[in-house]
Amino acid sequence: MAYDPDNIFAKILRGEADAAIVLDEKHCVAFMDVMPQSPGHTLVVPRQPAENLFDLDADAWTELMATTRRVAHAVQAAFEPAGMMLMQLNGPDAGQTVFHLHFHVVPRYPGEGLAFHARSMADPAELQEHAARIRAELTSG
Length: 141
Ligand code: 5GP
Fold this sequence. Notes:
The chain is built from three helices and five strands. By secondary structure, the protein is of the alpha+beta class. The protein has one domain: HIT-like (HIT family, subunit A, 2-Layer Sandwich). The longest helix has 22 residues, at 58-79. The N and C termini lie far apart (39 Å).
């Protein structure tokens, strides 16, 4: 499949679609998942137009891993979940639904069901508040 420059994450990266932005840097952007599996569910997205992990340059991969680690620490500090799941669904047969590479940082809380996708949209104001909490941890850390 060829990379589609009009996928929703490409639009968010270009500022053409809204998102609750957590981090906006040279190599990566992070924002709240619009259908969070749990409070604090954040997506980390490389700027390079890569559909999946096999399309990303090695240097960009290194940046993506380092940024994912920083975001995971900030989410942990902001939400203090009992556990955390990092996921990258690579290809449709692995459950990928948006074809611009991304990592999910998913806080896990006791008693939650474990799933790869949620079904309901979050309140945009709540996502903005969650993004602000994570940003505060990124700038303090
Ligand atoms: P994938 O299935 O590709 O691993 O994950 C795609 C994720 O993107 C899903 O968790 C879904 O909720 C999220 N998502 C889909 N559309 C949008 C959107 O327009 N904005 C944001 N912030 N997240 C989205």
